[in-house]
Amino acid sequence: MKATKNVLFILIDCLRADMCFGEDRFVKTPTIDSLKEKGTSFTQAIAVAARTEATVASMLT
After folding, report:
1. Domain assignments of the chain as residue spans, ordered by start
2. Does the predicted model carry a pTM greater than 0.85?
3. What are the angstrom distances between the C-alpha of 55 and each of 14, 36, 37?
4. Which of 11, 45, 47, 49 is the S-S candidate for 54 at Cβ 3.0 to 4.6 Å?
5. Which residues form the Sulfatase N-terminal domain (predicted)?
């Protein structure tokens, strides 16, 4: 029997990429840093719309 894999989407509106994952020396994000190290991180993405609601809906359908 294959082990199932968990999927976790972290969707944050208005978060700059340079303010997490250890990129900023003043802001500490150890939990998100740990999740990135253990999982998959997408560093480039294209949104389907300017509004967050439409983009989230497109990701989850």
Report:
1. 17-59
2. no
3. 13, 21, 25
4. 49
5. 5-61
